[in-house]
Design a protein that fits this description.
21 helices, 6-stranded mixed beta sheet, 610 residues, 2 domains, 10% strand, alpha/beta, Rossmann fold, 62% helix, ABC transporter transmembrane region fold
Length: 610
């Protein structure tokens, strides 16, 4: 399906609004013609144009080609009757009032058309953004290690705006402008068939020139949107790295990199805007050429006595000039659609991304974790590089198992695999003998709580952060989770206590406070399995003590997988797995591993632990 067809699919829920808008547009065109038509008797009176008196009321024959003569004769008959009864001043007054009334209704229908189109545009934009957001949530974590966050922001904001402003508006114009063109051209043909036939010669030339501009516009617009994605990524990087930038005096270096990108974007945007701006004056200039030719040709016919009367000729020029606006908008819409297709392509590229981590066809529910988790010959890697090789491990229910080892040994990868943020390449992970890929993903993830090194909090209240994921949160459960996580003491001191906003990314709280809220969130969920990924490594000694106490409270009577850098935090683990280059090198309790005097013992010595 083409990009345009897919974009049009998003208009389905709003077709009633679109239909009403088109009807209003048709009425706008009709009243436009009628308003201008009522100028003719005004001109006849002002310029004292005399015509043969029509004594009998004209009768329409039903032939389209005779419609103009009928309308002209009927108007003359009506005006003549009025003139005989009331005089020319009253006719002038009635014509002016009628013109004003018709123009008023013309503008009413113009407003109503835009009114109903607003519902269409805003609705489609919302639906696009909802679909993009839902897709982002559905995509695996691995997708975002390869893509820039700034590019995602551009797609959900700028690209959707481009689709709304260019494709949607363009599609609307492609449908409604021809309706107006048909009404106006019909009026022109009725007024003067010969003159209109002559005028239409230039329109194909206009369309060809605008089409060439549109194709060039599409190429440059694509490059501009990609560069805008780079800019957003730089901004995101800068906001997340302000302390590092300042302490290393890297302001100039970062500024140069940003300036280079923003200047590239400026040049590309200039090319796009210049070409887009060219479409309108080009069509206007061609229209001016056409009007000039019509004035000359039509004026020549009138002077020779073979053409229109003066008032009819002015009416004709007025209608033709009015016709130029929908033609101009129609031609501009063609170039706008070309530009908008670039953004649509980027949006649908994201929406069409295959979701690798999803439910199997026959995925089952998993009511309760009862026995054990097993890694059987598990291998995994990023791109072509293996990180985990033939990994075998059994974790019994209720066990606290710690994974330790140097950076890059695969500890966090194991946590990502067991939670199904990634899927294994070889081997399998079983829970109570069932392959985790055969369990419904949402059901499987209900089994897990997660506390990471980077405390992830949302710009919301303390209460809502703790009760995340619960549609009907309980005050008692929030309070209980807060106590277990050693968070209640500092929460009660906040100005609004549990209703206090934590700020963006928890910016109003200290590192230890943020981590304790993360633990409270995991406790609130009350899962049977807890994954702790270096949960205390970023904390100072005092905060670490409070957080470690909270972790010990949380892990009581619970299966826990602990990724640890600070070995002091895992000395009481039931089993310690020492990893190196994706493989298990040692396994045992703290005391057993010390007795072996191997890798674990060396790690202990490096951290100055007894």
């Amino acid at each position: 399906m083409s990009l345009l067809k897919r974009a049009i699919q998003y208009t389905k829920p709003y077709r009633s609004s679109f239909f009403i808008a088109i009807v209003c547009n048709f009425m706008y065109a009709i009243f436009n013609v009628l308003a201008l038509a009522f100028m003719m008797p005004i001109l006849n009176i002002l310029f004292d144009e005399k015509s043969e008196p029509i004594l009998e009321k004209p009768v329409y024959s039903g032939k389209i080609l005779e419609l103009k003569d009928f309308a002209s004769d009927y108007s003359a008959f009506f005006m003549q009757q009025m003139a005989d009864e009331s005089g020319p001043i009253k006719i002038l007054l009635i014509s002016c009032v009628s013109f004003i009334i018709l123009f008023f209704f013309r503008n009413i229908f113009s407003y109503m058309s835009e009114f109903f189109l607003i519902d269409l545009r805003s609705g489609v934009s919302r639906d696009f953004r909802v679909d993009i957001h839902n897709k982002i949530l559905a995509l695996p974590v691995s997708y975002f290690t390869e893509k820039k966050k700034g590019d995602m922001l551009v797609r959900i904001s700028s690209d959707v705006g481009e689709v709304e402003g260019n494709i949607l508006n363009g599609l609307v114009e492609i449908i409604r402008s021809p309706i107006m063109i048909i009404v106006f051209v019909t009026a022109l043909f009725i007024t003067s068939f010969q003159l209109t036939l002559f005028a239409l010669i230039v329109f194909p030339i206009m369309g060809t020139l605008i089409s060439l501009i549109g194709k060039s516009l599409k190429r440059d617009a694509g490059k501009a949107q990609v560069e805008l994605g780079n800019i957003m990524s730089y901004v995101d990087e800068t906001l997340n790295s302000l302390k590092i930038i300042k302490i290393f005096n890297a302001d100039d270096q970062i500024t140069k990199r940003f300036d280079a990108s923003i200047n590239r974007y400026r040049k590309l945007l200039q090319k796009v805007m210049k070409k887009r701006a060219l479409a309108s004056p080009t069509s206007e200039f061609l229209g001016a050429i056409t009007i000039g030719m019509i004035v000359f040709f039509g004026g020549k016919l009138s002077l020779e006595g073979n053409g229109l009367k003066g008032s009819e000729f002015i009416f004709y020029i007025g209608i033709f000039y009015t016709l130029l606006d929908p033609i101009k908008r129609f031609s501009r819409s063609l170039s706008d659609i070309q530009k908008g297709q670039v953004s649509a392509e980027r949006i649908f590229d994201l929406l069409d991304t295959r979701v690798m981590i999803k439910d199997n066809e026959n995925a089952i529910d998993f009511p309760e974790f009862k026995e054990k988790i097993e890694f059987q010959n598990v291998s995994f890697g990023y791109d072509d590089k293996n990180v985990i090789k033939d990994f075998n491990l059994t974790i019994k229910k209720g066990e606290n198992v710690a994974l330790v080892g140097p950076s890059g040994s695969g500890k966090s990868t194991i946590a990502n695999l067991v939670t199904r943020f990634y899927d294994v390449r070889e081997g399998k992970i079983l829970i109570d003998g069932i392959d985790i890929r055969d369990i419904k993903l949402k059901e499987y993830r209900k089994l897990f709580g997660l506390v990471t090194q980077d405390s992830i909090l949302f710009n919301d209240s303390v209460y809502n952060n703790i009760a995340l994921g619960d549609e009907n949160p309980s005050v008692e459960k929030v309070s209980s989770a807060s106590k277990i996580a050693n968070a209640e003491e500092f929460v009660e001191k906040l100005p609004q206590k549990y209703d206090e906003s934590v700020g963006e990314s928890g910016g109003k709280l200290s590192g230890g406070q943020k981590q304790r809220l993360s633990i409270a969130r995991a406790v609130y969920k009350n899962p049977p399995i807890m994954v702790l990924d270096e949960a205390t490594s970023a904390l100072d000694t005092q905060s670490e003590k409070l957080v470690q106490d909270a972790l010990d409270n949380m892990m009581a009577n619970r299966t826990s997988i602990i990724i640890a850098h600070r070995l002091s935090t895992i000395v009481n683990a039931d089993k310690i797995i020492v990893m190196e280059e994706g493989k298990i090198k040692e396994s045992g309790t703290h005391a057993e591993l010390l007795d072996r005097n191997g890798i674990y013992t060396n790690l202990i010595r490096l951290q100055n632990l007894d």
